[in-house]
Amino acid sequence: MEDKLNKEQIKELLPHREPMLLIDQLINIKKLQSATAIVNVKKDSFFVQGHFPGEPVMPGVLIVEAFGQAAAALTASGIDKSTYENKLVFLMTIEKARFRIPVVPDCKLELNIEAIRSHGRVWKYKGEAYVNSKKMADAQWAATIVDRK
Asked: What is the pLDDT of residues 38-59, one digit of tens each?
């Protein structure tokens, strides 16, 4: 497995599509352990147009969503394809989410994520979000892998 994935490779692992596919790259991948996701926050990103006019900010809930997408891509890239084929990953819990500094366009948001543990179909993660080496947000969350209907 490569130690990085581009957006097209991420699309092979996740069901998310534009505009809700938030992560542009997954780099520094350590199989089933950690990775860094890159989110290019742009002035024309769908979420900044109405949040807030004249003072665009990436919503905190979308930072958490990007954490979840990065974790799902990390996990899917490290396990056998038959394990995640015809499956979906859903967030179960979000804990200790802190939003320290607003994320504004145009920037490269780097999400450093780590798998803390897994038990069956439940995985627990933690992550920190940075722009230019400044911590913007952090959180812990759990997700589960479920069968598609």
From this structure: 999 999 999 988 899 899 999 9
Alpha-carbon span 28 to 95, nearest angstrom: 25
What is the residue range of 82's domain?
7-147
Do the Cβ atoms of 10 and 75 come closer than 8 Å? no
Q: Is residue 1 part of a domain?
A: no
Query: Which pair of tokens denotes residue 131?
Result: 């722009």
Q: Is the peptide bond before 106 cis (omega within 30 degrees of 0)?
A: yes
Catalytic residue selected from 4, 7, 51, 87: 51
Residue 89 counted as domain residue: yes
In the annotation, is 51 catalytic?
Answer: yes
Domain count, the chain: 1
CA distance 140 to 88: 20
pLDDT surpassing 80 at residue 83: no
Average pLDDT, the chain: 94
CB contact burial 32-71 (16+ within 10 A = b; e otherwise): eebbbbbbebeeebebbeeeeeeebebebebbbbbbbbbb
Q: CATH number, domain at 44?
A: 3.10.129.10
